[in-house]
What does this fold into?
Amino acid sequence: MHTGKQDAGKSPVPENMMPKLIDAHTHVQFKEFDQDRNEVIKRALDERIWLVNAGANKDWSLKAVELAEKYPFGVWATVGLHPDDTEKFDYSFYKNLATKEKVVAIGECGLDYYRIEPEDQKTKDAQKEIFTEQIRLANEIKKPLVIHCRQAFEDLIEILESNKKLLNNPPGIIHFFTGSPKDAERLLEIGFNFTFGGLVTYNRDFDEIIRKIPLERIMLETDAPFVSPEPFRRKRNEPLYVEKVAEKISEIKNVSFEEVCEKTTANTIDIFNLKEYN
It folds into this structure.
């Protein structure tokens, strides 16, 4: 994992700003926040909610890093190429960006077959190749993966298992998990953690999976500006709303809200190696 130290003179995190929750996957760098980005971040930080802005291509990865670097603590970035994006994967560009101090992971990367025809093997193969390159990059710089997967879990797991020697320990997270119980079981065996977001506040399809995954392997996210939790559905999502996800996980797993906050925050600090700021 990343072992860089804080820059000389960097202020420690004030005791009253230590995180209560961490939104492990959000996109406040996206255009939906152009009018009030600083206010959105301030609302989260004022409630001791830290956030990790996930990259999706060159532009959004660079913007995530630039935004994170404006804050002495509480705002982080990941860099990577989303499987839906058609740009060529520039290994050198992402490697250079990924070595910056505020970058905590490679991603979001992975496979997404939702918008392609089942017989479109060319697109599937291109996604697999780019995903494998990002696995290699994560191994080289020793940072975890943030994986996006939609309707492609069989192929995704096959790639992860065949590249097991390249996976770090821990290997990373499966963001916005929507797979089957069997998929979850196999990914747990490989060593992955899982993030859950606003969908679980109103869709009961994943309750049983959430009950079976140990809380020590769960992290929370918003995926803002998308998929707002109840009671904010059909409105723009934002990191502050991750608290609603924590409340629902607490209800589903029948544990206290405080325990969900404590353990999911500790998990995120561990996976993204934020200990030096904790």
